[in-house]
Structure formats: structure tokens, C-alpha cells
């Protein structure tokens, strides 16, 4: 009996000690549920909610590689490059450019309407098209045929609340009309100024009628405003199932000139769409040689030669993967630009485009010739091949 009592007492003591130690054990807290990113489908595909906010964010962009060859006047060629071994010898070489573009979009609903932002930043590496026969030390661009990190540019950065937009955008003179055709070199005959700081108001009248009023800073030596008076752009558009008709008018406050464009888009069929656009602008002050800054006939808005210009072209979709794009342009100075390409979507998000470009510089060799494309002869021919992965 004594042995049995001893064993029972020992067992009870062991259990008591074990229970005391268990009471002192560290208790591991349960992990909090992870906050997964939620999809936002209010503004289209690709948006998600920024955790902890009601703001929807989309991130995208593209990586692009261009390779061109031909005459400088087509924007595709690099001509008269100095030989590395034989002084005085020159050659033509490829135009090449690699670009990485990062884009962001945000959207949020507020009591004052949708609050949106858009940014686009571009990184470029490559050489520049042009004629490099002038190798004088005073020519700042004499080495631009060389590959280099060319530019880091903030291409777009704007905020929009309801219809009010402020920030950096392309001029409404171009954006509201939809630029020109679906070709790479669409500015062989230029149609407007593009980059600017802006204060804009967009309105929607319903039934397909929209409009814009834009106050703009401009860009460059000719385009940037030289006082508190902004450039002013106004536009109206009517859009239907058949296509659209758009008109824009711009006032250049530097040279006190006016320019306008009217564009007609027609959807002929599911495969074929066509457009034609005409521009007209006054230019007495733009071509005045006594100006402190001689614009030589080309302003920030009326960049084409002379008073008038016309652009036309279209897109034909052979199938879901392949499209043919073309554009013809002509202006009062008898500049003729022709561009045509085939764009093929290899897989979704990856497109290869092969384009041929032609320019006839109507006033080439004349004393008042304003060389928009850096042409080194009257007729220029070139081609460009583009690889682009969009995401």
C-alpha cells in the first residue's frame, strides 16, 4: 500500500508541475486576414483599388524598338555620317530608337464628379534622324547621329475633375480632332503644336455633341507665350454611329494669328474607316522677317506651309491581326507627304509595323524654304520598322 500511495502521489505532483508550466507558455496571436488587392471595374479593364482608399489605379505602357533607313527628309534616315577612318568620307546609316513608356491612370468618384489623373513618362535611347554633313564645332547637333540616352520626358501629367483639366497635355488643337492618321510619320506635313501646359474645360451636350475650351502655354521658342495672354483653343464635335465631324479654332497670342481645322471621320464598314481634314490659318505676322523672332511662316498651331493644308487617309482591317493604314497630306507650299504601313499583331499586346514614307518638299532650294523635315533634297524616300509590346 505504501508503494502504491507513493506512485499515485508522484503522478499527481508531475501533472501539477506540467499544468503550471503550460500556464506560463507563450500564446501566438492569430494572423490578421491579408488585405488583397480588389479589382475596380468602374473605369474599364486593368484598374484596381489602392488598398485603404476609394481610388482606382491602372499601370501600363509599352516597350518599342524602331529601325529606319532612307533619306533624312522622310524622318527615317540618318545621312552624311562621318567615316571613322577616312576624314572627309561620309555614309548613311540606320535610324534606331528604343523607348520605354510608363503610363498611369487614376479615377475616383466624388460629389463634384469623377476625379482623374493621367501620366506618361518616356525614356529614349538611340540616334536622331537627319543630315549630318555640317560637322562644324558651332553645330550643337553635329553628333546626334550617335547612339545615346536621348531624353527622359514627362509627356503627359494632368488632373481632371468633372470637365476641368489642368496640367501637361497635348494641345486641344490636336487631341480634340484625333491628331491625323494611323501612320508612324503622320507629320510629314505638320498639323499642330502638340505639347503644352493647359487649363481646359470639356463639356458634353448630349446626343453626341461635345466641346472644349483650352487656355495654353505653348512650347518652344516660337510657341511659348511671351506675356500673361494665353493661346486659346476652342472645339466642337458631333459623333454618331456613322463617324464624326470635328472643328477646332486656335488663337496664337504671340503672333496674333488664327488657325482652324475641320475633320470628317466616316465608318464605311466594320473593316474600313476613312478621314479627311482641312486646315487654314492666317500668317502675315508669322512670315514677317522683321520680327524679333522670325517664325518663317510656321507658328505653334499653323505649322503647315502657307495658308492651307489637307490630310486624308484611312484604315482597312483585313482581319483581327492585320491592318493597312495610309495617309496623304499636302499644303500651300506644295509639300506632299505620303505614308503607308501594314500593322500585324503577332500575339495580343505585340505588334510589328512596317511603313514606307515619301516627302516632296515643294519649295526646296527657294530662299524662303522652311525645312520642316530636315530634307537634303527635293524628294525623300524612307522606311521604318517598329516592334511594340504594349501592356
Radius of gyration, CA atoms, in whole angstroms: 31 Å
In spatial order, strands of the major sheet run 2-4-5-7-8-9-10-11-12-13-14-15-16-17-18-19
Query: Could you give the order of the helices and strands?
Result: HEEEEEEEEHEEHEEEEEEEEE
Sheet having the most strands: 16 strands, antiparallel, barrel
Quickly count the helices: 3
Structural class: mainly beta
Strand content: over 45%
Number of E strands? 19
Q: Name the shape in a single word.
A: globular
- Write down the overall mean pLDDT: 93
Uncertain segments of ≥5 residues (pLDDT<50)?
14-18
What does this structure look like?
With 391 residues, the protein is mainly β. Helix content is 8%, strand content 50%. It contains 3 helices and 19 strands. It has helices at residues 2-23, 172-175, 220-223, and strands at residues 48-49, 56-70, 77-82, 90-110, 113-126, 130-131, 148-161, 164-170, 195-206, 209-216, 231-240, 243-252, 257-267, 272-281, 308-317, 322-331, 336-347, 350-360, 379-390. A 16-stranded antiparallel β-barrel has the order 2-4-5-7-8-9-10-11-12-13-14-15-16-17-18-19. Strand 1 (48-49) and strand 2 form a beta hairpin. It is globular, with a radius of gyration of 31 Å.
Amino acid at each position: 500500500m505504501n508503494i502504491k500511495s507513493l506512485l499515485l502521489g508522484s503522478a499527481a505532483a508531475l501533472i501539477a508541475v506540467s499544468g503550471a508550466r503550460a500556464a506560463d507558455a507563450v500564446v501566438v496571436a492569430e494572423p490578421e486576414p491579408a488585405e488583397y488587392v480588389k479589382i475596380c471595374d468602374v473605369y474599364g479593364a486593368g484598374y484596381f483599388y489602392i488598398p485603404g482608399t476609394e481610388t482606382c489605379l491602372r499601370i501600363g505602357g509599352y516597350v518599342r524598338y524602331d529601325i529606319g533607313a532612307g533619306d533624312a527628309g522622310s524622318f527615317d534616315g540618318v545621312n552624311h555620317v562621318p567615316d571613322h577612318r577616312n576624314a572627309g568620307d561620309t555614309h548613311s546609316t540606320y535610324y534606331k530608337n528604343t523607348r520605354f513608356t510608363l503610363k498611369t491612370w487614376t479615377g475616383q468618384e466624388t460629389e463634384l464628379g469623377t476625379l482623374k489623373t493621367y501620366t506618361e513618362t518616356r525614356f529614349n535611347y538611340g540616334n536622331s534622324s537627319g543630315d549630318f554633313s555640317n560637322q562644324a564645332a558651332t553645330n550643337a547637333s553635329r553628333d546626334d547621329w550617335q547612339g545615346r540616352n536621348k531624353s527622359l520626358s514627362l509627356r503627359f501629367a494632368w488632373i481632371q475633375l468633372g470637365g476641368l483639366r489642368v496640367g501637361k497635355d497635348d494641345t486641344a488643337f490636336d487631341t480634340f480632332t484625333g491628331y491625323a492618321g494611323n501612320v508612324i510619320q503622320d507629320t510629314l506635313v505638320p498639323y499642330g503644336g502638340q505639347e503644352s501646359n493647359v487649363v481646359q474645360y470639356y463639356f458634353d451636350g448630349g446626343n453626341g455633341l461635345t466641346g472644349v475650351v483650352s487656355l495654353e502655354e505653348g512650347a518652344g521658342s516660337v510657341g511659348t507665350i511671351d506675356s500673361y495672354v494665353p493661346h486659346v483653343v476652342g472645339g466642337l464635335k458631333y459623333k454618331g454611329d456613322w463617324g464624326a465631324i470635328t472643328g477646332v479654332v486656335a488663337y496664337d497670342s504671340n503672333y496674333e494669328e488664327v488657325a482652324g481645322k475641320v475633320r470628317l471621320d466616316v465608318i464605311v464598314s466594320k473593316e474600313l474607316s476613312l478621314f479627311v481634314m482641312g486646315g487654314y490659318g492666317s500668317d502675315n505676322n508669322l512670315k514677317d522677317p522683321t520680327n524679333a523672332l522670325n517664325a518663317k511662316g510656321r507658328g505653334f498651331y499653323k505649322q503647315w506651309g502657307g495658308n492651307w493644308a489637307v490630310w486624308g487617309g484611312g484604315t482597312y482591317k483585313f482581319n483581327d491581326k492585320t491592318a493597312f493604314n495610309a495617309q496623304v497630306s499636302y499644303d500651300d507650299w506644295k509639300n506632299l507627304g505620303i505614308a503607308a504601313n501594314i500593322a500585324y499583331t503577332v500575339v495580343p499586346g505585340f505588334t510589328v509595323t512596317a511603313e514606307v514614307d515619301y516627302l516632296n518638299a515643294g519649295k526646296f532650294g527657294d530662299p524662303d524654304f522652311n525645312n520642316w523635315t530636315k530634307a537634303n533634297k527635293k524628294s525623300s524616300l524612307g522606311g521604318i520598322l517598329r516592334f511594340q509590346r504594349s501592356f
